[in-house]
Amino acid sequence: MDIRFNKTNPRHGIISITLHEPDYRPVVDQQIRHYAKNVRLKGFRLGAVPINLVKRMHEPSILAEELPKLASKALENYTTQEAIPLFMEPLFMPSNEPLDFTSQADFTFSYEVSLLEDLPIELGTHMSVTKFKVDGVGDKPVDEFIEALQIVHGTSEDLEESDEDAILYGHFKGAVDEVDLDLRISVAHIPEDLRKPFIGLRVDQTVVLSEEIFLSHSYALLDINTGAYSQLKKNKAAWPGLFTISKVVHVTPAPITPQLFDLVLGEGTADSEAAFREKIGRIILFDKHAEAQYLFYKDLCDEILKYISVELPDTFLKKWLLVHNPEATVDQIEEYYEKSAKKIKWEILLGAVIKKNSLTVIHSDVLDEAKRIYLDTTQKFDDNFENQLPESDIDAMIVSLLKQDKGKPYMKLHERLSRSRAMNFIEKHISVVLQEVTTEQFDAR
User: Fold this and answer.
1) Based on the domain organization, do 245 and 215 belong to the same domain?
2) 444: helix, coil or strand?
């Protein structure tokens, strides 16, 4: 086997792998013997066809199937052994001349590769990010959340057309493509001077939705999560947008009773309105903590990329996307690339932080984290936590769970741990301004 690496520039190259007959003959002969056991040919008993005849009949197709596998494996071994810093999976380069599997003895397979640059990571206090600590929920957000719950669990009646008390369900498409989501609009919550266009509407009709109408609704009433609500508030380019109606209803809100408490929180969880409001406040606070964490990571990404430049191999990456998404058009690839470039740069930067600071996540780290998550969840929700499984059984169960779906849970947890380690490292080496706020202050920022 011959392997040649032609590095055309510091970030691009072509790896060519030439397989000679001794490299592939054992695999091919093994497949021919397998075929010989099962081939059916007139005049011969099953498994009695002469091996040379089987070889003439099937060797070309076996070569066509097995050679690319051998070359691909050789490529993987070579890039691993030589520690070649690959950016994305190599791209197979079809030969200009078709391979002749009947007479050719040597076969060359070439792969285009893009290489990660040696990214200098210089962090410092000149990089500054605000980190919000959300603590305290006032009456207003709790009232708004409960109002939405009363609508969700109320009695609805379909309407032919909307009136001042109607609830409109539909799809909102903003002025920019990335804003595209389902919403719920309460006509009664629209400012009175903007309400008229929303009266007399029917299913499948479309109406213009302005930012003023959106801001008069809480995220719970709109039936979206806090992250989507925050992004809509910040994305001024989304307005105005088009709202296409899928359902028009009148809702008699569910009364605030123990039945509502049980429906929302589970039977017996809250035994009074005060307890119900307290637990709803906890839910809101949990959502806000998650939103604040997401905001911090987003701002962290924006701040670091202002100071550390990450260059992408645009041509290779677009080609890679086209090869792996053959149904996509060039314009669709360009659009996707434009939206994804920043995220890709951030992942490359995090990878460089991990590599340069010995933060690599190993197998035992993944198992330990999976076990911690299991024990925390069990302790929180299982009244019989003290009577849990023996530790050896828990370990075996966790290994089994991580192997499900071809190991996707394992890879997902590995990626999460890696990302977390890198961001925690960055956070410790820049200026982080901690700001304590209430949920109302956080929403108004």
Assistant:
1) yes
2) coil
Which of 67-98 are b and which e, b meaning 16 or more Cβ less than 10 Å from the residue's Cβ? beebbeebbeeebeeeebbebeebbeeeeeee
Tell me the CATH number at 110. Answer: 3.30.70.1050
Q: Does the CA dihedral 271-273-276-281 come out positive or negative?
A: negative
Given pLDDT bands bounded at 50, 70 and 90, which one contains residue 153?
A: very high
Which of 80, 114, 148 is at the close of a domain? 114
Whether the bond between 141 and the residue before it is cis, its omega within 30 degrees of 0, is no
The answer to whether residue 283 sits within a structural domain is no
Structural domain that includes position 338 = 290-443
| pTM > 0.85 | no
Last residue in a domain, options 276, 307, 333: 276
| CA nearest neighbour of 159 among 244, 250, 246 | 250
Answer yes or no: are the C-beta atoms of 321 and 337 closer than 8 Å: yes
- Same domain? For 17 and 98 the reply is yes
pLDDT tens-place string over residues 296-333:
999 999 999 999 999 999 999 999 999 989 898 999 99
User: Which sign, positive or negative, has the C-alpha torsion 193, 195, 200, 204?
Assistant: positive
Angle at 89 between CA 107 and CA 31, to 5 degrees: 40
pLDDT band, residue 99 (cuts 50/70/90): confident
CB 109 within 8 A of CB 92: yes
Element (H, E) at 258: helix 258-265
Is residue 294 domain-shared with residue 437, that is, in the same domain?
A: yes
Provide the domain count of the chain: 3
Please report the pLDDT score of residue 2 as a whole number: 95
Position 354 pLDDT exceeds 90: yes
